[in-house]
Structure formats: structure tokens, C-alpha cells
């Protein structure tokens, strides 16, 4: 975006005054306070994560099927056995621990715990979906249900790190950062990677790691509907856009003058770009983050809960060109049902079901479904055996996720767990396979999307992963 020539002229005049009279014209505190909203804009620049120079995106290796990704993340681990993977054998062997399957779990658990929820076939595909999810059942032919997901760590933090970054360590770049690094953003007024979460508790899950930090996710609290509450210090209440523009041009001129004297400085270049993005964002963000501007019928379709707001906001963001939106169902890890799971699911599933199904329907209505890949799931599933009598423990050995849109086949149920739903046994899918497939739909060969750091080339899928071609249209 080029600045107005008159602003540049005023910036030059201001520079000349500084040269002639020295810094006595303005105190350091007053100067910083006046810069496009003062510390608020500087804070926003930091939030945008630009600590290194902005670089051109890598660009896809081949024609992509999808341009955007929305990940609906159910923190804690949703129960596949109660939603997408019916197991009649649980009723036959209720309370027992048959030797046919190794039911080893993280903690001491009891016998097999049947699901009380009825499953029915839906759509032309005949997908089996629980009575807990009537609205997702209505779009069953759009879902690609993967019943054979597996991972290798039963603990929340490393398992969440793995599904976000392909590594159990908390230092590697996350999926959204890799996508931002590869594709950049379609809208220079908004971040390319947005994390929607009621709290910043899981900030490590939208980190950029060793990638340039301009690719870090920008966090917003989607439980708010007022953008000015969602984004603190977004606007300068004392100065209008023209005055801010002149001050930003002056700051940029001063920074560039310093760079010319001191030599190249990647960190300074990134700060210049971050301040520019922060200035532009304060105007567009007020519009795009305001879900209250949606027609009443659309808001009613999604619902009025924080998760519903997040789903609607995710649609508005991809509509404006944001590449990757990661939506957390929170706060905390509400799907971690170690006790009273049946009661908890009855309370929690309705708004998740409504919001996720409305997102699919709305994207289709707006012609965005085919270019937007939706992913649903948590860090693992739940055990078929009971914990504390009426709960389920963590289960990384076999669980369900689904995808929709973005060039994946709808109406597909892929893979299978054993007769009790404990271990993935047929057409098993790893987290690295999932990541490889996501990147493939965005036009990337996951083995070629690399970044050199500390003397070696890193990639999201490490040395693993295969593209699940059988799931692609």
C-alpha cells in the first residue's frame, strides 16, 4: 500500500525540523505515545509476531484444491465411541475386559463401558452418526470420517503439540505457521494465521517456532462479539486515521534513515512492516470481527454460544482471505471427560453440532466450501473402558477425526478400530499422514516444504507421512 504523497511531504518536513532543531522539539515519551495509538499499536505489532523480516511466501508446488483451512479443535479429546464409531460389542461385554484386545490405558480403568447413545445411518452414504449430532448427521454426505486415527502419546500436552506441529516438543512451528510460510496471506490488512480461543492459555499451540515469527498465529478471544473488546487497543481514541498515517510515515522515515546509516537490519524491517499492518488492521478488523453485522437468520443458524461465534467468525475470516483459522472449543479442555461423560456430552454436543454443521452449510451457500478445508477433532479419543465408573480415559491408540470441503471426498467412512473401539486396526492414519494430506490439498509436497534451521532442513511431517489419496476427490 503506497502512502499519500502529501503525507510523505509532511514526513519530510518533520524530518527536516528534527535535523535542524534536534530532539528538543519532542520528548521521547510524547513521541512514542503519539505513534499510531502509542503502546496499543506497538502491542498489536508484537501480537502480529513480526520479529524477523517479512519474506515472500514459498508458493504451492502444484495446483491447489484448497486455499483456506479451518481447524475445529475440541480440546481434551472427544469420545469417538459416543459420536462417530458405534461398537455393539460394548453392550455384549459390558463391565468385562476381554483378552482379545489389549486394553492397556494411562490410568487404572474398569470394564467396558457401552455408549447409551443410539446410532443411525444418514445420507446416501449411510454414515453412522450418534443421536448426539443431528445437525452434522444432516450433512453426512459432506463428511470424510476417519475412524482409524492414532497417535503415540496419551498425555495432553505432548499429544496436542504433535497434532499442532508434528512433534511432541513445544518448540516446533505449528501447522498454521507452516501454511502461512508456504502461502502467505491473501489480505495484507489481516493476519494470515488466526487462532480463536477464549484465553491465551494455549499460546504455544499457535507459535511459529523456528520459522520467521511473522508466521505466528494472532490470537483473538472469540467468546466476545464486540471487536473492540476482542482486540484490545485496536484503535487510537485520540487521533484520526490521517494523523496516524502522517505519524507512521514519519516513524518509517526515521527507521529507514537509521537503517541506511547502520546497515541492513532484519528485525527493524519486520517492525516497520508490523506497524504498517497494525495501522491497516485497525480499520478492516472492526468490520470482519463483528459477527453482529451478520443477518439475524445466519446468526440463528450458527447459534449464540462462543463456539458458534467462532464458527461464524472463521467463515468471515476465510471469506476475507485469511489462510488458516484454528478454532478452540474452550476454555480449558472441556472434552476431557474422565467422569460423568454421558451427562457432559448431552450438555456440550448441541452447540458444537450446530456450529460445525452451520459452518459447512454456510460455506456451501457462499461458494467457499470447495476451496476451504475443514478439519474436526482433538488430540486423541476416549477409552471404551470406564474410568471412575462413568468416565473415559485418554485414548491415543484409535480415535475419529473428520474432514470436509477442500477437495476431500464427502460421504466416506475410512478405516476402523477393533471391535471395542480401542485401537486403530484397519487403514490406520497417523498425525503425519493427516498433515501431509492437508498440505497436499493446499498445493504442497510435504517432503519439499522445508525450512533450514540449525544446520538441517525441517518439515512439518519430519521423516514420516503419506498423502491419503484414497480420501481425495
Please give a structural write-up:
The structure is a single chain. The protein has 473 residues and is α/β, with parallel strands linked by helices. It has a single domain, classed as Alkaline Phosphatase, subunit A (3-Layer(aba) Sandwich), CATH 3.40.720.10. 35% of the residues lie in helices and 16% in strands. It has 14 helices and 17 strands. The strands form 5 sheets. Strands 1, 4, 5, 6, 7, 8, 11, 12 and 15 form a 9-stranded mixed beta sheet that branches. The model is unreliable at 1-26 and 33-54 (pLDDT under 50).
- The total tally of domains equals 1
How many beta-strand elements?
A: 17
Question: Can you name the CATH architecture?
Answer: 3-Layer(aba) Sandwich
Task: Output the CATH topology.
Answer: Alkaline Phosphatase, subunit A
- The CATH superfamily name is Alkaline Phosphatase, subunit A
Let me know the average pLDDT: 87
SS strand fraction? 15-25%
List keywords for this structure.
alpha/beta; 473 residues; nine-stranded mixed sheet
Note the topology.
Blueprint: H1 5-21, H2 28-34, H3 39-47, E1 68-74, H4 89-92, E2 119-122, E3 127-130, H5 134-138, E4 143-150, H6 156-165, H7 175-183, E5 193-196, E6 218-220, H8 227-230, H9 241-262, H10 266-288, H11 296-302, H12 306-319, E7 324-329, H13 341-365, E8 372-377, E9 381-387, E10 391-395, E11 399-404, E12 412-414, E13 416-417, E14 424-426, E15 429-430, H14 431-441, E16 450-453, E17 456-459
Parallel strand pairs: 1-7, 1-8, 4-12, 4-15, 5-6, 5-7
Antiparallel strand pairs: 2-3, 4-11, 8-11, 9-10, 13-14, 16-17
Helix pairs in contact: 1-9, 3-10, 9-10, 12-13
Amino acid at each position: 500500500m503506497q502512502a499519500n504523497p502529501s503525507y510523505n511531504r509532511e514526513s519530510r518536513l518533520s524530518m527536516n525540523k528534527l535535523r535542524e532543531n534536534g530532539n528538543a522539539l519532542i520528548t521521547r515519551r510524547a513521541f512514542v505515545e503519539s505513534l499510531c495509538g502509542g503502546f496499543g499499536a506497538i502491542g498489536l505489532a508484537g501480537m502480529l509476531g513480526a520479529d524477523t523480516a517479512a519474506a515472500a511466501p514459498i508458493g504451492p508446488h502444484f495446483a491447489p484444491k484448497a486455499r483456506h483451512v479451518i481447524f475445529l479443535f475440541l480440546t481434551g479429546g472427544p469420545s469417538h465411541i459416543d459420536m462417530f464409531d458405534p461398537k455393539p460389542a460394548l453392550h455384549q461385554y459390558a463391565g468385562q475386559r476381554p483378552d482379545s484386545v489389549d486394553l492397556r490405558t494411562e490410568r487404572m480403568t474398569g470394564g467396558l463401558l457401552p455408549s447409551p447413545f443410539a446410532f443411525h445411518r444418514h445420507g446416501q452414504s449411510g454414515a453412522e452418526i450418534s443421536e448426539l449430532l443431528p445437525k452434522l448427521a444432516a450433512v453426512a454426505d459432506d463428511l470424510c470420517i476417519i475412524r482409524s486415527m492414532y497417535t503415540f502419546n496419551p498425555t495432553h500436552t505432548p499429544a496436542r503439540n504433535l497434532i499442532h506441529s508434528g512433534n511432541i516438543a513445544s518448540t516446533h512451528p505449528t501447522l498454521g505457521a507452516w501454511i502461512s510460510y508456504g502461502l502467505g496471506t491473501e489480505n495484507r490488512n489481516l493476519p494470515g494465521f488466526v487462532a480463536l480461543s477464549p484465553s491465551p492459555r494455549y499460546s504455544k499451540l499457535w507459535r511459529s517456532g523456528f520459522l520467521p515469527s511473522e508466521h505466528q498465529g494472532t490470537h483473538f478471544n472469540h467468546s466476545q462479539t464486540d471487536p473492540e473488546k476482542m482486540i484490545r487497543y485496536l484503535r487510537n481514541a485520540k487521533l484520526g486515521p490521517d494523523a496516524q498515517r502522517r505519524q507512521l510515515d514519519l516513524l518509517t522515515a526515521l527507521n529507514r534513515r537509521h537503517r541506511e546509516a547502520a546497515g541492513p537490519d532484519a528485525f527493524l524491517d519486520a517492525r516497520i512492516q508490523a506497524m504498517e499492518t497494525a495501522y491497516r488492521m485497525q480499520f478492516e478488523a472492526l468490520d470482519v470481527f463483528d459477527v453482529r453485522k451478520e443477518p439475524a437468520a445466519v446468526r440463528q443458524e450458527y447459534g449464540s454460544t462462543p463456539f458458534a461465534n467462532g464458527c461464524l467468525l472463521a467463515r468471515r475470516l476465510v471469506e476475507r482471505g485469511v489462510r488458516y483459522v484454528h478454532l478452540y472449543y474452550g476454555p480449558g479442555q472441556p472434552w476431557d471427560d474422565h467422569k460423568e461423560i454421558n451427562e457432559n456430552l448431552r450438555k456440550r454436543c448441541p452447540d458444537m453440532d450446530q456450529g460445525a454443521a452451520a459452518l459447512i452449510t454456510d460455506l456451501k451457500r457462499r461458494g467457499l466450501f470447495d476451496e476451504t478445508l475443514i478439519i474436526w477433532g482433538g488430540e486423541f479419543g476416549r477409552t471404551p473402558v470406564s474410568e471412575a465408573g462413568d468416565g473415559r480415559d485418554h485414548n491415543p491408540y484409535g480415535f475419529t477425526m473428520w474432514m470436509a470441503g477442500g477437495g476431500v471426498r464427502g460421504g466416506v467412512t475410512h478405516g476402523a478400530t477393533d471391535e471395542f473401539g480401542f485401537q486403530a486396526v484397519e487403514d490406520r492414519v497417523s498425525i503425519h499422514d493427516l498433515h501431509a494430506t492437508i498440505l497436499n490439498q493446499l498445493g504442497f509436497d510435504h517432503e519439499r516444504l522445508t525450512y533450514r534451521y540449525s544446520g538441517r532442513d525441517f518439515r512439518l511431517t519430519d521423516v514420516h507421512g503419506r498423502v491419503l489419496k484414497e480420501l481425495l476427490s
